[in-house]
Amino acid sequence: MEIGAHDTKKSPLGRFTWVVLLVAALYSIYLVIHPFTPLSKLSISFLDTVQLERATHVFFLIFAGYLITSQSTPAKRTLGSWVFVALSLPFLYTFWFPNVRGVDIPLVGKLVGTLVWAVAALPAIFPRIHRYTDLLAALAAIAPFVYQLVNYEQLVYRAVLPAGWDMVMSFCLIILVLGLVNRFLGPVMPSLVLVFLAYNLYGQMVPGTFRGAKNGIDLILGKTYNETEAGIYGLITGVSQKYLVYFTILSGLIGTLGLGKVVANIALALVGRTPQTPGRVTGLASIFMGMFSGSGAADTQFVATLAKPLFERAGYDRMISAGLVATSGTIAIITPPVLGSIAFIMVEILNISYSWVIIMAIGPCLLYLISVLAYNEFYTRKAKLPPVGGDEHPTRSYALRYSTIFIPILIIIGMLYVGFQVSTAVCIAMLGFILVAYLDPTLRPRGLQPILDGLAEGFRQLIPIGTAIVAANLVFAMMVITGLPSKFSIFLGQVSGESLLLATLLTAIFSLILGMGVPPTATYVLTSSLTAPAIIGLVKANFLGYGLAPEQAVLAATLATHMFLFYYAVLADVTPPVALSAYASASVFKTDPIITGVYAARVALSKYIIGFFFLLSFTGTGLLILPVLQNVAGIGGWLIILERFFFTTAAIIFMSAATVGYTRRRLARWESWVMGLLALSLFYPYPNLWVGFIPLVLCLLFFLRRERQTIPQASD
Fold first, then answer.
1. How many contiguous H segments (helices) and E segments (strands) does the chain have?
2. What are phi and psi of 547, to 5 degrees?
3. What is the per-residue pLDDT across 338-392, written as a single tens digit (0 to 9) for each?
4. In this predicted model, which residue has the larger pLDDT, 338 or 550?
5. Do 436 and 304 belong to one domain?
């Protein structure tokens, strides 16, 4: 359902949609300056109350989202579509026939809720009706929002014992959110939310460890809609309203101002003309765009369009090209300073500084990039590809000429360092990019229309991510009510036998499997809620053995665990069968998206190993930099960090050679396996890995020696 904000203006409904998107973006930007305006003295509820600011934000997401989907081509009906509708039926049934006594929902309210369910859910299995139902769904979104504005003060006191119409509005809002997520991201995520809803309503029927309490639908609907922080407008939804919207608007502005092409040309100018140029440009451009976008799929789409001609001229295998781009594009989510939405959720959950997350993301980002570049290096040598030609190749002087484009990014970093709010820093950066574009005569757009289009496009880019975040908040709220995280922690401890190695492996697998069906944000929310308490306890016990004080061990274990979960949630974008970056890359290279996902998983195989070793010893946290610097003073801390990066980089290079099957010649299968196993040993954060490094070097020299012996001698 791709439809650009500037493309929608071709019809009256399209122009109206564009206006709604623009108003939504301007509202978000205005909230930053509101405390300094005369309106701040008037106590306007949706400008001064956090809960209502979030409610307004969610309204814009739903209203604009359904307007957009009403003008787009509907997704095809699948088995997942039927599952989504089927899972919504118990929720609808319990709405009509509450599972506890004394719940009074008006008959008219039940009819209204059923109508909203029909327009939000039924197009999943009857896609031809979507144009009209989606317009009705957009109109239906107005009622819960207005009801919230009018009755906000009373709703807060009715969270546990909601009124009848409170429950009607809550039911409508939940169904509208799930219907929109289904339209943009498919049925897996909304189906998962419905499973958690069913567990809350009928958890007493589940046997064993996961047996839950019986919660009435009045409690579920009341807390979801009326509660200030535990409901649909909770802290996770606040991440979209407080942080993410500003970065997507920034990304939209960069696109409509034409600055993305400049960034891509700078990357091309820096790598030169070699057989490795396409892969290097892909990696570097992904890093540059990741500084602005924070979206793996959007980054992949842009880089794929840029690099496709280069890959074709160099003679890359098309599937390898698509896999490289999909893998590289995912770097955006872990590229500072504009990290993905997961980083902001981590900030809210852990109550830490955003700059902490930036520092901890530097290591995984660089190592991920090295994985891509190392694989690309060995692949091009094995395939004996020629250098990329073309007279249009930008020069180094071009990169220097337009290096001013990175000044706004430095502004963000500087303002965050001195303590400014993220929203303020990003808004100042928006102004910086506008000045860069309009002050340079070679970049200057015509008129102010690109700015308006960029604002609207930025909010449009937010809608799929923002609605997924709201759905993730629903799951989070459901887990808080049932106490499921504590049950899951007990289960994980029983299954792993309190073994940190096994618990970490199980959590990594669980995260990857979950990430096959839901976006990275939802994967992180679920895994951090369900597995983090148990993992932190095991990691803390491990870290205490390194002489850390209990409070130091808890902090280091908490940071390492959440970065571990962050990293593996990111890999959802390249993990088949549902890999958003792989789908974005496949759409450009015209390849099968599932096979592209398989190639993306194979490319830079080391990416699946790096994060696994954050937790297995305290020295492993050296890859995250911050936990070591917080606990080891002086040169000792830096030595741990440097040693970890040295061995991990060496392991990545050797693992890439083993995966490709090439050093300076083709490797036999047994040679690749030997090199891969030795490389794997270097990832493990032993206190001293020099003993393992020496055999690996000797092994590599042995392979190179055989290479020289097989070179035929020239005859006299």
1. 34, 0
2. 85, 10
3. 787 788 888 888 888 888 999 999 999 999 999 999 999 898 888 888 776 655 6
4. 550
5. yes
Are the CB atoms for 508 and 531 separated by under 8 Å? no
Q: By residue range, what is the domain housing residue 682?
A: 647-710
pLDDT in tens, 434-479: 998 898 888 888 888 999 999 999 999 889 888 988 988 888 888 8
Domain boundary among 214, 233, 252: 233
- Round to whole Å and give the CA distance between 451 and 420: 24
The tokens of 405 are what?
A: 């484009």
Residues 157 and 194 both lie in one domain:
yes
Query: What is the C-alpha separation between 402 and 411, in angstroms, rounded?
Result: 17
Q: Evaluate whether 116 touches 176 at the Cβ level (below 8 Å).
A: yes
Position 173 scores a pLDDT of 95
Which structure tokens are listed for 152?
Answer: 């906000």
Q: Rounded CA gap, 30 and 38, in Å?
A: 12
Last residue of a domain, one of 170, 200, 233: 233
Phi/psi at 557 (5° precision): -65, -40
186, 257: one domain: no
Query: Is the separation of the CB atoms in 6 and 453 below 8 Å?
Result: yes
In angstroms, what CA-CA distances link 500 with 537, 538, 542, 557, 688? Answer: 9, 6, 8, 12, 20
What CA–CA distance (Å, rounded) separates 186 from 194? 14
The number of folded domains in the chain is: 3
Give me 142's structure tokens: 């107005």
pTM above 0.90, yes or no: no
